[in-house]
Amino acid sequence: xxxxxxxxxxxxxxxxxxxxxxxxxxxxxxxxxxxxxxxxxxxxxxxxxxxxxxxxxxxxxxxxxxxxxxxxxxxxxxxxxxxxxxxxxxxxxxxxxxxxxxxxxxxxxxxxxxxxxxxxxxxxxxxxxxxxxxxxxxxxxxxxxxxxxxxxxxxxxxxxxxxxxxxxxxxxxxxxxxxxxxxxxxxxxxxxxxxxxxxxxxxxxxxxxxxxxxxxxxxxxxxxxxxxxxxxxxxxxxxxxxxxxxxxxxxxxxxxxxxxxxxxxxxxxxxxxxxxxxxxxxxxxxxxxxxxxxxxxxxxxxxxxxxxxxxxxxxxxxxxxxxxxxxxxxxxxxxxxxxxxxxxxxxxxxxxxxxxxxxxxxxxxxxxxxxxxxxxxxxxxxxxxxxxxxxxxxxxxxxxxxxxxxxxxxxxxxxxxxxxxxxxxxxxxxxxxxxxxxxxxxxxxxxxxxxxxxxxxxxxxxxxxxxxxxxxxxxxxxxxxxxxxxxxxxxxxxxxxxxxxxxxxxxxxxxxxxxxxxxxxxxxxxxxxxxxxxxxxxxxxxxxxxxxxxxxxxxxxxxxxxxxxxxxxxxxxxxxxxxxxxxxxxxxxxxxxxxxxxxxxxxxxxx
Length: 607
Known about the structure:
By secondary structure, this protein is mainly alpha-helical. Helix content is 75%, strand content 1%. Among the domains are: 1-83, no CATH class; 412-603, de novo design (two linked rop proteins), CATH 1.20.1440.250. The chain has a two-stranded antiparallel ribbon with strand order 1-2. Strand 1 (435-437) and strand 2 (443-445) form a beta hairpin.
């Protein structure tokens, strides 16, 4: 049987090949499978097998066999294409194109043979990468005119264009020379007019959901590189914004708008960006009303709704990174800007690591930018030197600079206050904390460090420190208010207490010493009270770990207050006798940290 398949001097026995493939994928014995595997490998490695591909595709009834044949063909196209005679290349090109058109011109066969058509599309794009533009100049015009002949063909043409864009712009490194990539990019650019017209035509005329979705997906692949005129000087943005409120197109449209939002190229198209943002915000409020609880909406949402919230985070962060200054500059746009920031703060409460990362990354950028401006303002000599001015000219210049900077800080004061609340509620766990809650709700000692959490802690800590510098009062008040709610029992929970104490510990050194001392005395006093009034071993262990963490973070304070240091150390000795897992270890670690930072205090006679 194997010999009959190996002999490629005559047309291959397709039913026999089907049986071999079925044996390989099937439920036969181990021996049958390995024999089938051996034969298929030999066929795949035989340089003449590809000549049988058309024969196999025309006669096989088995999808796996067709995929096997296409795999053989794909390898030839990838590695031996240019060595083939022209008529063989044309034969393959025409055959693949014909089969694709034939299968995608009929709704029933197109849906039924979807996987097969997708694989044929991939192979066609591999051919195009070799042949176009030099040997197949008419490829794009041919494709566009085929697309106009029927809606299913058009849907498949969109899929081919999307694949082509991804191959050339995203995955081409390592597969093609730089010269070839450049040539393909130029061809796509110069021929884009036709594709653009086709997309606009479909979006304005078609009623077929699948076709519109395929077109939006294709546009998404193209938007990051097409010439800007196609976006801003055509009705494209208006059409996208019109589709945005429609449920079945919402996510795809939002991805397209995010690509546009992320473009940066100077301020030539600023008015268009303002208009786009204004219309977007008006429509967004009809989809998700202002004030929605995003954390709940995400937890209870379908996968489509969850994807929408993720995409929304990407849209806002992309837009603000590139164009927030445009929105700030005119008072008419500031309301929309502040509302957008509120939406983003709402999304930041969503319990999903990826969504939070996207938001946190942007908050860190924004706060850093505001902090640097504020820091330079407090240091006029530095501001002047940054601008290359003589110190004698300084006061006027600095005052002139100060007013926009102060206005900018005032503009963001409300969102920043809400952002502090967010950071305190979601603070990540620092390295020093060894006590965690396991999946059964018990308090145990941590066994392994989570690197992602530590990275997140560093970014959050940096962000909180900048925010503390921008407004010490607000930071302190928010933390003390949260602590009161722990004592009153209104917000008491392990998680709430943990994140609050981690946040308190993370801003060490960001206040003036006097203010910090006052703040810390209140915090430690409240935490010790909490430990006294709270019943239950696990509860006490959680509070103890938080007291130890906070105290260890403020050595400057301990050095200045011997009596307090003595009380803390005695408390640590108490915790060292605690048998609860992790409490002893953490008490020893904290004691070691304090002794290292305050060593002098322990060896001099204290009054």
